[in-house]
# Entry
Amino acid sequence: MNNKSGRLQSAWGALPVVVFIAVWEIVGRFDLFPGQFFFPPFSAVVKEFYHLTANGVLGKNFASSLVRVLIGLCSGSIAGIFVGVMMGWRSVINRALNPIISLLYPIPALGWLPLLMLWIGINEMLPITIIFICSFFPVVYNTATGIRNVDGRYVQAAETLGASNMRILFKVVIPLALPNIFTGLRLEAGMSWRVLIAAEMVAIPTGIGALLMQAESLVRVDIIMVCLIVLSVMCLLFERVFVIMERRLIGKWSNHA
Amino acid sequence: MPDIELVNMSRHVCRNVNLRIMDREIFVIVGTTGAGKTTLLNVIAGVADYKGSVLIDGASVDKVSPRRRGVGYLFQGLALFPHMTVEANIAFGLCAAGMEKSAADRRVASLMEMMHIKHLAHRYPHTLSGGEKKRVALARSLAPSPQVLLLDEPTASLDHQTAKYLRTELVSLLKRLEMTTVYVTHDLREAEEIADRIALMSHGRIEQVSTPRDFFFDPRNEFVSEFVGMPNIIECTRSRTLTSGLVEVVSDEMTMVLPYDGGNIRKIAIPPDDIYISDVKPPGPALNRFTGKVVEISRYGSNVRVRVSIGKNRLLAELPASAFDELSLEEGKDVHVVIKLRRLRYVES
# Structure
């Protein structure tokens, strides 16, 4: 009964996607949009996806972007978690760093681009640094908030049970702050792809963003659409990975903490 | 097991509290909400700052961190770690003490056995009932073999039956472990059941420390008397055993039959709400029923207090205003008095 209703729900959820693709195909194929050239049907986009994959162009650019995102996101998140934990755990560090973080956090990641182009130059480090900044500040903020919001009773209980400060931090406080930390990571996983594409479009000659700009200059709408679909899928996929990790790590208890 | 001493301790509402809790004693602190009961436990555990001094086993622990005070603390909210299973919660203190894994596993297994929670080992706290959570929290606080056990309302928010069951088990456990225990509750009946001594707190002050019996028969001031329900203390001139489990006591013109299985009774205490007043003769046998005269009527919140004289004895009865309004009582009027013996307390000769 449950499986059946689950399948029905999935089918119902897929229906709008099928309708959307069908409408896209009809509009593109029957020239319902002014200038068919600028609106290829879905089948043409799929065909181009196949060509780009087969000749290795998409794979090469995708790999460049993926490596940048992975390095930038991982380093930014690890640094963000570390600084966030320090700020949440020790009020003296929070007092010292909070004014700086509060000043820098509101600056949009792409706002750093002109400055970083001058400081770093146009090379691989540029998009990685942008993604680092993009993930660092929100992760710091969410982690510090998560650590600070851990109920003091748990810390007191751990103290009376003889736990050292480090044990309390690693065995009690950080695990209890994980829901907040994952909120930051999940949001930034998708955001890092958006920022990367923008950076590549502006300054870097390789990657999905660069491919997008090349397609625009050649008026290849089908390639643009392939790149946008890849981008969309990667944003969703990255967010999904963190959702699955979160569910695996804290799903058993997080709604009841 | 050590004794605990508070010397001029001040924290929040508590001002200059001086208290000595004896070795292996079950010391119960009662009082209304905000009286400072939990504050006192927090101070003993060292999880709150305070002024004054706390001594455990004669040595000051003011500079000793909570993790080295040798205190097991059952928090009111329990504070079970939600991300750990029952087993991991109980093992937490043992791992923190650096106990070898196999020894820790054995200790956890024996505690779960003792608390009847072995079947819950792999469950998370949010899947447990209120009573089960309390057992797990108690096992966790006992795991590192503390010298002193602090229990903050361990039976609160449980249904009456579960609370009673847990309390009985707890008392037998504490007696067996011979552990110095400080037990906080707002329920005086609970305190009476388990305490070696009771301290009554009000607005951060200790109003009286005494045995449960002295609370009723020798209240130090009006607050204590009010808190225990202003019981009527009746001096008995003689008593005799009627049959096993029943005794007849005489006090002036009053002859009462009480369920009792000991020696002679010298004094009995009857709570005012256990005295039933009627302006017509109630049906049934004339056992523990008397006629008296109303000498005083006074309003007390939503209740009415009626003082009745029966011979030389004067009894205070307390009844809801709605029940009082149904009776046509006035001072000087003769009334029928029925004494219910639900919560009888006595002093033996």
